[in-house]
Description:
By secondary structure, the chain is mostly helical. The protein is built from five helices and two strands. It has a two-stranded antiparallel sheet with strand order 1-2.
Amino acid sequence: MVELLLVIAIIGILSTLIITTVSNATRDTRSVVARQQQITLQDALNAWVAANSSGTNTLQNARTAYAGAGTALTKLALLTNYLHPETYSHFTNYSTTSQIKSEAMTKAGVYLQFSSWGTSNYPIVGWYTN
Length: 130
Protein backbone atom coordinates (compact mmCIF):
# COMPACT_ATOMS: atom_id res chain seq x y z
CA MET A 1 0.00 0.00 0.00
CA VAL A 2 2.82 2.43 0.86
CA GLU A 3 4.59 1.57 -2.39
CA LEU A 4 1.42 2.30 -4.35
CA LEU A 5 1.04 5.71 -2.66
CA LEU A 6 4.70 6.47 -3.38
CA VAL A 7 4.28 5.59 -7.09
CA ILE A 8 1.14 7.77 -7.33
CA ALA A 9 2.99 10.67 -5.68
CA ILE A 10 5.90 10.35 -8.11
CA ILE A 11 3.54 10.22 -11.09
CA GLY A 12 1.78 13.34 -9.77
CA ILE A 13 5.06 15.23 -9.43
CA LEU A 14 6.21 14.23 -12.91
CA SER A 15 2.89 15.21 -14.48
CA THR A 16 3.08 18.61 -12.76
CA LEU A 17 6.54 19.16 -14.22
CA ILE A 18 5.37 18.20 -17.70
CA ILE A 19 2.30 20.44 -17.56
CA THR A 20 4.42 23.39 -16.37
CA THR A 21 6.90 22.85 -19.17
CA VAL A 22 4.17 22.69 -21.81
CA SER A 23 2.41 25.82 -20.54
CA ASN A 24 5.72 27.74 -20.48
CA ALA A 25 6.43 26.63 -24.04
CA THR A 26 3.00 27.88 -25.13
CA ARG A 27 3.60 31.27 -23.50
CA ASP A 28 7.05 31.54 -25.08
CA THR A 29 5.65 30.61 -28.49
CA ARG A 30 3.02 33.35 -28.29
CA SER A 31 5.72 35.85 -27.39
CA VAL A 32 7.86 34.78 -30.36
CA VAL A 33 4.88 35.01 -32.73
CA ALA A 34 4.03 38.48 -31.38
CA ARG A 35 7.64 39.66 -31.93
CA GLN A 36 7.55 38.32 -35.49
CA GLN A 37 4.30 40.20 -36.09
CA GLN A 38 5.92 43.38 -34.76
CA ILE A 39 8.77 42.92 -37.25
CA THR A 40 6.26 42.29 -40.04
CA LEU A 41 4.47 45.56 -39.26
CA GLN A 42 7.77 47.47 -39.04
CA ASP A 43 8.83 46.06 -42.42
CA ALA A 44 5.47 47.10 -43.93
CA LEU A 45 5.85 50.57 -42.41
CA ASN A 46 9.38 50.88 -43.83
CA ALA A 47 8.10 49.86 -47.28
CA TRP A 48 5.26 52.38 -47.02
CA VAL A 49 7.67 55.20 -46.06
CA ALA A 50 9.99 54.28 -48.94
CA ALA A 51 7.14 54.20 -51.46
CA ASN A 52 5.59 57.43 -50.23
CA SER A 53 8.82 59.41 -50.09
CA SER A 54 10.25 58.51 -53.50
CA GLY A 55 9.64 59.69 -57.01
CA THR A 56 7.66 62.91 -56.99
CA ASN A 57 6.84 62.52 -53.29
CA THR A 58 9.09 63.84 -50.57
CA LEU A 59 9.81 62.61 -47.08
CA GLN A 60 7.75 65.54 -45.80
CA ASN A 61 4.76 64.34 -47.84
CA ALA A 62 5.05 60.89 -46.29
CA ARG A 63 5.44 62.39 -42.80
CA THR A 64 2.34 64.54 -43.33
CA ALA A 65 0.26 61.58 -44.54
CA TYR A 66 1.44 59.49 -41.58
CA ALA A 67 0.62 62.24 -39.08
CA GLY A 68 -2.77 62.71 -40.72
CA ALA A 69 -3.65 59.12 -39.92
CA GLY A 70 -4.54 59.82 -36.31
CA THR A 71 -5.42 56.44 -34.80
CA ALA A 72 -3.53 53.17 -34.77
CA LEU A 73 -6.15 51.58 -37.01
CA THR A 74 -5.88 54.43 -39.51
CA LYS A 75 -2.10 54.06 -39.58
CA LEU A 76 -2.55 50.31 -40.02
CA ALA A 77 -4.84 51.04 -42.98
CA LEU A 78 -1.95 52.89 -44.65
CA LEU A 79 -0.09 49.57 -44.76
CA THR A 80 -2.87 47.61 -46.48
CA ASN A 81 -0.88 47.17 -49.71
CA TYR A 82 2.24 46.09 -47.80
CA LEU A 83 0.68 43.30 -45.71
CA HIS A 84 -0.83 39.99 -46.77
CA PRO A 85 -4.64 40.41 -46.78
CA GLU A 86 -5.12 37.72 -44.12
CA THR A 87 -2.48 39.33 -41.90
CA TYR A 88 -4.13 42.73 -42.25
CA SER A 89 -7.55 41.23 -41.52
CA HIS A 90 -6.21 39.40 -38.47
CA PHE A 91 -4.80 42.62 -37.02
CA THR A 92 -8.02 44.54 -37.62
CA ASN A 93 -10.07 41.82 -35.91
CA TYR A 94 -8.15 42.17 -32.62
CA SER A 95 -7.01 45.82 -32.65
CA THR A 96 -8.55 48.90 -31.09
CA THR A 97 -8.22 52.52 -32.16
CA SER A 98 -5.10 52.92 -30.00
CA GLN A 99 -3.61 49.41 -29.88
CA ILE A 100 -2.59 47.01 -32.62
CA LYS A 101 -3.13 43.42 -31.51
CA SER A 102 -3.31 39.90 -32.86
CA GLU A 103 -4.63 36.76 -31.22
CA ALA A 104 -1.13 35.83 -30.01
CA MET A 105 -0.57 39.34 -28.63
CA THR A 106 -3.90 39.31 -26.83
CA LYS A 107 -3.05 35.99 -25.17
CA ALA A 108 0.50 37.16 -24.36
CA GLY A 109 -0.79 40.41 -22.83
CA VAL A 110 1.06 42.73 -25.21
CA TYR A 111 0.15 45.20 -27.93
CA LEU A 112 1.81 47.38 -30.55
CA GLN A 113 1.58 51.10 -31.20
CA PHE A 114 2.84 53.31 -33.99
CA SER A 115 5.14 56.07 -32.75
CA SER A 116 4.81 59.68 -33.76
CA TRP A 117 7.04 60.83 -36.59
CA GLY A 118 8.77 64.13 -36.05
CA THR A 119 11.51 65.81 -38.04
CA SER A 120 14.26 64.25 -35.92
CA ASN A 121 13.06 60.65 -35.67
CA TYR A 122 11.64 57.78 -37.72
CA PRO A 123 8.31 56.00 -37.13
CA ILE A 124 8.59 52.72 -35.31
CA VAL A 125 6.20 50.00 -34.23
CA GLY A 126 6.60 49.87 -30.46
CA TRP A 127 6.00 46.88 -28.14
CA TYR A 128 4.04 47.44 -24.93
CA THR A 129 2.75 45.24 -22.12
CA ASN A 130 -0.82 45.47 -20.84
